[in-house]
Amino acid sequence: MMLKQEVQRIASSYTEKKKQALLVIGLIHQGERHVFHFGDHPIQQRVQPEEVIFEIGSISKVFTTSILASMIQKGQMKLDDSISLYCPEIRKNHPIQLEQLATHTSGLPSHRFLRDLQLRFLPKVRRDMYCQYSLDELMKLLHSKKWNERKEYPSRYSNVGMVSSQNI
């Protein structure tokens, strides 16, 4: 069976159950990149399927740490590198290291109470509930007095640390 037909057979089991679904499958087969679009979502009337931006959620953490591991293996980065090496806007030798971002031990808070209130009660504030900080807010946090000395921070789950590692 040809690749496109096989992918279409697999995708149809999903798109037949989910009316108005839009499904994009990308894969590499025998060294060639392939992207397939399936479904009938109204957004297709406004933009082409390849222009649609999808929220991929927590799987991005796996991609981020896999890329980090690959770069470490190639000698391009080290786990104990300060985030300031990759973001010149952050002061030199900032105590947060790549390993801390990857393992959720940076001490970055997972969310902000006021942002949660705004998202819940102010209809004009339209932000992704997982995007707890704007880039400006994150930079202010990283430049705050809290980060003046290198120390261990509590290990706690934080989307902010992993999301930050993708932007830094």
Quick overview of this protein structure:
By secondary structure, the chain is an alpha+beta fold. It contains six helices and two strands, in the order αββααααα. It is flat, with a radius of gyration of 20 Å.
Overall description:
With 168 residues, the chain is of the alpha+beta class. It is built from six helices and two strands; from the N terminus they run αββααααα. A hairpin with a 2-residue loop joins strand 1 and strand 2. The radius of gyration is 20 Å and the shape is flat.
Rg calc:
20 Å
Helicity level, as a percent range?
25-40%
Main β-sheet, spatial strand arrangement: 1-2
What is the multimeric organization of the chains shown? Answer: single chain
Uncertain segments are 163-168
- The fraction of residues assigned to DSSP E strands is 5-15%
Total helices: the number is 6
Q: What is the string of helix and strand elements?
A: HEEHHHHH
Can you give keywords for this protein?
2 strands, disordered C terminus, single chain, two-stranded antiparallel sheet, 6 helices, about 170 residues, alpha+beta
Per-chain topology:
Blueprint: H1 3-15, E1 22-29, E2 32-39, H2 59-73, H3 98-102, H4 113-121, H5 135-142, H6 159-167
Antiparallel strand pairs: 1-2
